[in-house]
């Protein structure tokens, strides 16, 4: 199975290496217009060939991107990214396609409505393949907005929207959208989308068990695919034929068409086309009672599914979305810093007001003292002054308390800066050193991969540290928001096993989830995931290779006790008392050099207590540790 993060990062690295090694001719700087013409030609050819020859189209788009970057030709960069998105869409690498299409948007001219409409249409089409129908509709609507009265783009809009309705099983709206698209595409002479619409109409008829009508549409779609050189659609049409003949119980014909479809899909790298063909062939042999061949193609189908794992697609999407969310997160940090600065200015302003009030009050008191000095009611005056003096003492106490709070805040700020400077500088310094060595050609690709594997646990630790710092800082500034719900700890444990599967495999650590099911706790689900995630991450960090990490639970009155146990190196008794106190901060490196700040445990303690529980630890050096916390049961 392809790992999502590894897939995208490796792909980007391969692109950069590939582009660096291509024999792109050096063109004189004063010949920029010639370069632009070359880029435009490459992009045009790539856009025309990605369906029939995706590998060739990818190479041309890559050259166009490299040349455009050299002369900062923004529209060339944007079109190259769009073409790369088309290529990976045609080969069913939808998350990567989405990444490139979104990358194109900043480079497209805001006044070029046609290009923007095309890009958003492609984004909507890709979200559709990822089964994110709401995002697909949103993107397609944006495409229609930019298309305006452009017949060709409106035809493309209805073409893609028809498939959304088909996937949502709304066949009447799908048929209406398809017929509207067919009308517009014919009017604009758009053979490619006309070809696609016939496959839409075929699918609608087949899904409503109108197999002969579906075959009629397939005939048109199949012969048009040669005119448009759309090998991807041709492969899909062959498989559609097979599904129709299965519906008509003509299984030999179905096997013949599906076999042809699988061969064509394999020749262009259409992974989901291969799996669909194997599924259809398997069904045909099952209906023929040919169990040997049915089992043979079931194995092929399962193998194809493994390479097209849905969770792998979603992880790719999350990675790409995280990439685009980075600037937003940086902006959030900037907003937090700006707010802290404003709060500090407010404190200074308030102090100035307090001092002014005190001085004014003293002047008033002196004036009152002088005025009443001449009166015989000296005793009443003294009593009044005494009461005013007591009020001043109260105000003084409040001021001293505020000063103490400000000093504590500054001390905590200095502590956090020291933690960040100490524990987060090292991995970035190491990465900078590796990049410098690579730039100086002191490292080959194999050495680079080796160093990156060694750096991975350090980077994972830094990533968790940053996440904990942001979570804790947010709780301190905005306060902790509690949204309680009924939570099954066993299910959370299963989710954590998936999240930390890679780290567990890196150290060959066995993860055991023996938390009892059927007993729900009342707590904020996000908080519980942060708590258990931090405790499991720490357990992995301090457990040697071939160790065991276990999550378990048991009832204790009206509470559920959750335990995270590891067979790691344990914690000395004199260090246990420091674990949950930020002011007595200390850190230890994990067994593979993973770093930490201690903020995670402090955050866990705060979140557990905020959800009505307690957190404690038992540990023995050389035998491991058990972190336990309690939570109230539902009801």
Automatic annotation (TrEMBL):
Ranges in a coiled coil: none
Reaction(s) this enzyme catalyzes, per UniProt: ATP + protein L-histidine = ADP + protein N-phospho-L-histidine
Positions annotated as TPR repeat: 117-150
Transferase keyword on record: yes
Molecular function per GO: phosphorelay sensor kinase activity
Keywords from the named record: Kinase, Membrane, Phosphoprotein, Signal, TPR repeat, Transferase, Transmembrane, Transmembrane helix, Two-component regulatory system
EC identifiers of the protein: 2.7.13.3
Class in the EC hierarchy, top level: transferase
Domain Histidine kinase: residue ranges: 419-635
Pfam families referenced in this protein's UniProt entry, alphabetically: HATPase_c
Name of the protein described by the UniProt record: histidine kinase
Source organism of this protein record: Mucilaginibacter ginsenosidivorax
Lineage: Bacteria, Pseudomonadati, Bacteroidota, Sphingobacteriia, Sphingobacteriales
């Amino acid at each position: 199975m392809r790992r999502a993060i590894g897939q995208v990062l490796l792909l980007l690295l391969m692109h950069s290496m590939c582009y660096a090694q291509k024999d792109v001719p050096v063109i004189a700087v004063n010949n920029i217009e010639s370069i632009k013409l070359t880029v435009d030609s490459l992009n045009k050819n790539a856009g025309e060939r990605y369906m029939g020859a995706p590998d060739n189209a990818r190479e041309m788009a890559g050259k166009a991107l490299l040349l455009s970057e050299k002369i900062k030709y923004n529209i060339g960069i944007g079109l190259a990214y769009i073409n790369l998105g088309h290529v990976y869409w045609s080969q069913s690498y939808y998350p990567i396609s989405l990444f490139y299409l979104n990358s194109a948007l900043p480079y497209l001219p805001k006044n070029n409505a046609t290009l923007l409409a095309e890009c958003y249409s492609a984004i909507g089409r890709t979200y559709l393949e990822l089964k994110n129908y709401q995002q697909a509709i949103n993107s397609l609507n944006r495409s229609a907005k930019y298309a305006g009265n452009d017949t060709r783009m409106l035809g493309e809009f209805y073409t893609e929207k028809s498939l959304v309705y088909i996937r949502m099983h709304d066949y009447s709206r799908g048929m209406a959208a398809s017929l509207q698209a067919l009308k517009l595409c014919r009017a604009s002479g758009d053979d490619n989308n006309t070809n696609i619409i016939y496959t839409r109409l075929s699918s609608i008829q087949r899904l409503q068990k109108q197999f002969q009508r579906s075959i009629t549409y397939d005939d048109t779609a199949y012969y048009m695919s040669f005119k448009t050189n759309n090998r991807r659609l041709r492969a899909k049409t062959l498989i559609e034929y097979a599904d129709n003949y299965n519906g008509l119980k003509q299984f030999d014909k179905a096997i013949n068409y599906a076999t042809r479809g699988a061969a064509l899909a394999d020749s262009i790298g259409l992974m989901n086309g291969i799996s669909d063909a194997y599924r259809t062939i398997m069904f045909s042999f099952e209906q023929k009672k040919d169990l040997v061949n049915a089992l043979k193609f079931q194995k092929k189908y399962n193998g194809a599914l493994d390479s097209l794992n849905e969770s792998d697609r979603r992880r790719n999407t999350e990675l790409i979305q995280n990439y685009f969310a980075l600037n937003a997160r940086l902006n959030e940090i900037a907003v937090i810093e700006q707010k802290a600065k404003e709060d500090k200015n407010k404190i200074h302003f308030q102090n100035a007001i307090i001092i002014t009030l005190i001085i004014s009050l003293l002047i008033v008191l002196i004036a009152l003292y002088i005025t009443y000095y001449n009166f015989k009611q000296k005793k009443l005056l003294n009593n009044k002054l005494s009461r005013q003096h007591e009020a001043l003492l109260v105000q003084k106490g409040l001021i001293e308390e505020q000063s103490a709070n400000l000093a504590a805040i500054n001390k905590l700020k200095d502590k956090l800066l020291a933690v960040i400077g100490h524990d987060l500088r090292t991995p970035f310094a190491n990465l900078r050193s590796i990049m410098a060595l690579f730039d100086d050609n002191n490292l080959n690709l194999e050495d680079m991969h080796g160093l990156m594997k060694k750096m991975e646990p350090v980077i994972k630790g830094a990533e968790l540290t940053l996440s904990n710092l942001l979570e804790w800082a947010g709780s301190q500034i905005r306060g902790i928001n509690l949204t309680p719900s009924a939570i099954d700890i066993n299910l959370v444990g299963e989710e954590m096993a998936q999240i930390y599967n890679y780290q567990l495999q890196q150290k060959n650590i066995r993860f055991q989830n023996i938390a009892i099911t059927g007993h729900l706790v009342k707590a904020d689900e996000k908080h519980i995931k942060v708590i258990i995630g931090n405790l499991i991450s720490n357990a992995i960090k301090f457990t040697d290779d071939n160790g065991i990490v276990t999550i378990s639970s048991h009832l204790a009155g009206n509470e559920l006790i959750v335990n995270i146990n590891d067979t790691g190196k344990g914690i000395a008794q004199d260090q246990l008392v420091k674990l949950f106190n930020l002011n007595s901060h200390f850190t230890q490196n994990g067994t593979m050099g993973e770093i930490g700040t201690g903020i995670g445990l402090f955050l866990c303690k705060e979140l557990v207590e905020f959800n009505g529980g307690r957190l404690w630890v038992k540990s023995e050096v050389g035998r491991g540790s058990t972190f336990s916390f309690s939570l109230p049961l539902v009801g």
